[in-house]
Amino acid sequence: xxxxxxxxxxxxxxxxxxxxxxxxxxxxxxxxxxxxxxxxxxxxxxxxxxxxxxxxxxxxxxxxxxxxxxxxxxxxxxxxxxxxxxxxxxxxxxxxxxxxxxxxxxxxxxxxxxxxxxxxxxxxxxxxxxxxxxxxxxxxxxxxxxxxxxxxxxxxxxxxxxxxxxxxxxxxxxxxxxxxxxxxxxxxxxxxxxxxxxxxxxxxxxxxxx
Length: 210
Prior knowledge:
The protein is of the alpha+beta class.
C-alpha cells in the first residue's frame, strides 16, 4: 500500500505494532527500547504516555541518528486511573471486573523523531471502549487463556478479548497499539512514505472485476 522513502525504525518489541506497520507495506527495522516505565508521582495519564513514547524513540534514535524512529506507548484509563499490565491471573480478573459494563479510554502516544534532523513530535490518539457487563466466570475464563498478561487493561481487542467489547468510538488500530491513520498521515506529510503505485497487471485485474 505504501512505499518507504527513508529508513524507518520501530522502537518497540510489540508484535502487534509490528504487524500493524507491516499491513501498510512499510519496510522498517525493529529495535526495542528498554526504558524505566515507572509513572511519576501525580503524573497524569497523557503526560505519562507521551513521556513513554518520547523516551522510547529518543533512546533508539541516539544509536541510529540517520533513521526516523517511531516510539509508541498505549495505556488504558478508567476514571483517570491507569489500568496496567497484570502480573498474575488474579490481577487480570480484577482489572476485567473493574472495566465490566463501563466505558474506558485507550490512549496511544506515538513519537516520531530523527536525531540528525533534530526533529521530534509526539501525538496522542484516544479511543473510547465500551465493555459489556461480565460475570466473574467470563473474566476468569478469559484470564485463563493467558492473553491478558502482556496487555494494558488486561485484554487484547484483536484476539479473544474482542468478545468482551460491546463497541468502540474512535480508532480500532489505536486500541491494538498504534493509530495507523494518524501515523501514516504524518509519515506522508514528511515525505517518509508515499502511496505505492499499483502494478499494471493488478490494475487490469481490478478493471476486469468491475
